[in-house]
């Protein structure tokens, strides 16, 4: 792909050169990433209070701290782009908050499943996007995912919970299906409202663009199904 220089300041919004489109795409990409990390930190640290054991509380607290560290890294990169992190996050606040309002867990185990499902889908989405980014930006995005222990920790705890109480299986399977539907709908809404992939697929004809988006969401759904299978749940 064409080499880009994402650390240059953004040009005025009226400009529409490929470089300007790409920079605005980066503003949206890191804006939604930053707000996602901040929201994860807030909810994970809050829900840790309801953990059934002190060990669980400690583990979730540590994961929450990691989410905040990621938020700080993304915010710092936004500042390197010459952007205000709060301004970059603001367009995504209503829809992300609405998603969390629609998917309030009934208990700690549903909260754990929500973290597991949404964190994994986000990781899959950003990894797919990273394949189209310039090397510097891709390195930052993939570095956040590689340093992320959340998925493995949550999967192990869910497996333990299901082994300890098999009655949880049907409820968590149903909850997982609802979560993936809401999460994918939320991701599609962001793509439509902010054209988040527009900076990557600029110049692509409409039909091919739509096919690329469909393939992306099909891949996200398949990955979710594999994760549910590892838990012994029906996706």
UniProtKB/TrEMBL annotation:
<dbReference type="InterPro" id="IPR009078">
    <property type="entry name" value="Ferritin-like_SF"/>
</dbReference>
<dbReference type="InterPro" id="IPR012347">
    <property type="entry name" value="Ferritin-like"/>
</dbReference>
<protein>
    <submittedName>
        <fullName>Ferritin-like domain-containing protein</fullName>
    </submittedName>
</protein>
<feature type="domain" description="Ferritin-like">
    <location>
        <begin position="21"/>
        <end position="203"/>
    </location>
</feature>
<dbReference type="Pfam" id="PF13794">
    <property type="entry name" value="MiaE_2"/>
</dbReference>
<dbReference type="InterPro" id="IPR059125">
    <property type="entry name" value="Ferritin_actino"/>
</dbReference>
């Amino acid at each position: 792909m064409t080499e880009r220089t994402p650390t240059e300041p953004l040009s005025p919004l009226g400009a529409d050169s490929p470089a300007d489109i790409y920079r605005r795409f980066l503003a949206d990409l890191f804006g939604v990433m930053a707000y996602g990390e901040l929201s994860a930190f807030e909810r994970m640290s809050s829900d840790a209070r309801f953990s059934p054991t002190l060990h669980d509380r400690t583990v979730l607290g540590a994961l929450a701290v990691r989410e905040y560290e990621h938020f700080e890294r993304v915010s710092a990169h936004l500042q390197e782009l010459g952007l205000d992190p709060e301004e970059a996050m603001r367009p995504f606040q209503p829809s992300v908050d609405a998603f969390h309002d629609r998917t309030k867990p009934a208990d700690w185990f549903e909260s754990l499943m929500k973290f597991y499902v949404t964190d994994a889908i986000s990781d899959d989405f950003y990894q797919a996007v990273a394949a189209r980014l310039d090397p510097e930006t891709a390195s930052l995005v993939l570095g956040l995912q590689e340093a992320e222990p959340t998925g493995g920790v949550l999967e192990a705890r869910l497996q333990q919970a299901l082994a300890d109480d098999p009655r949880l299986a049907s409820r968590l399977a149903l909850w997982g299906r609802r979560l993936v539907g809401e999460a994918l709908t939320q991701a599609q809404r962001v793509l439509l409202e902010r054209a988040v992939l527009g900076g990557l697929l600029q110049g692509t004809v409409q039909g091919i663009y739509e096919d690329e988006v469909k393939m992306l969401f099909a891949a996200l759904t398949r990955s979710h199904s594999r994760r549910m299978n590892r838990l012994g749940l029906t996706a």
